[in-house]
Amino acid sequence: MTCRLTTPMPPNLKGVPTTIRILLLLALPASGKSEISRYLKTLSSAGRADGFGFGRLIELDDYPYVHLMRRISAELRRFDGEPVFFGSDSTPFLDSGDWGTLIHLINEDYANLGTAGQPDPRSAARWLLGRLQRARRAAGLDSPFGGMTDDVRASLILSVEEDARRLWRARRRRMAEDPSGATVVIEFARGGPEGAAFPLPDAQGYRYSLSRLSPEILVDAAILYVWVTPEESRRRNVERAWPGRRGDESILHHGVPEAVMRQDYGTDDLMWLIEHSDVPGTVRVEAHGTVYHLPVAVLDNREDKTSFLRAEPETWSDEAVGRLHRELKDAFEKLTVASAVDRGT
């Protein structure tokens, strides 16, 4: 069974606007994903709808979970607890299966959109640990906190409560948004070690993570891939990073450790997946006993068109904005047409 129409666009669809329901915004770190999201939010509702096929924007991103996983890991090392997630502040996941943990957290966030009025948990840290434990089990991994002593658990909860509370509040605001008529933008980065051969093994790269997205996401998803080389991604990663907690907590300005950039993002399989799809203009995803063909558009950002968006909007030049706007419009027009064909509207 396939869940994507692959026929050419019928004549009665020409010129018919549609809305991209779910946009998977994918790229290596510092390649321009978050900058593009920032730009889209500066457009009027009419501008997003007419020029880009977008409804009201709802953003989901797995980086806040990575940040909290690093915080938990650092606190456990400080308490001499069993290491989980990361062995140090500068190294990759201890278990690469945690890329799947992140996807299951996204699945849960998407499923909970539109659930307003969620009561505050007595402890946001306990809520966070519970979510991480469920997501890890869904990814086929052991509980990250099974061997933890009561004393270490209590100390961990106290030490990350403030960070977890900020995450809870930000998530509650997003979950209260009605997804009807909106475009949900889901942002994440994946890759593999420098010099790795394709296809990348399970747990690495986009092939694995896309296959772990829920059917509810995959059936409506389209992909915008922001293409940057691993070398350029590393350069921009250094350029964008703010030092300290202020940078670590920022989606726009966090820095990824060099070892992670080379081990987890030293190569990128998205272009390979596009080239090897059996349906042109799509990425083939085998998941949940079926095959999905996700429409894909590529924004070539190897020559940097997006980093200027990190500055304040009043400093953006009309020339830079105009060039980016035209290229994004071309990309999104392809995706809106594909979405219209897929729905038969």
What does this protein look like?
Helix content is 45%, strand content 12%. Helix 3 runs antiparallel to helix 6. A 6-stranded mixed β-sheet has the order 2-3-1-4-6-5, with helices on both faces. Strand 5 (282-287) and strand 6 form a beta hairpin. Mean pLDDT is 89; it is low at 1-17. The chain has helices at 33-42, 45-52, 63-78, 98-111, 124-138, 150-175, 205-211, 215-218, 230-240, 244-248, 258-263, 270-275, 318-343, and strands at 22-26, 56-61, 182-188, 221-227, 282-287, 290-300. It has 345 residues and is α/β, with parallel strands linked by helices. It contains 13 helices and 6 strands. The chain has 2 domains: 1-55 and 181-345, Rossmann fold (3-Layer(aba) Sandwich); 63-177, no CATH class.
Quick description:
This protein has 345 residues and is an alpha/beta fold. It is built from 13 helices and 6 strands. The protein has 2 domains: 1-55 and 181-345, Rossmann fold (3-Layer(aba) Sandwich); 63-177, no CATH class.
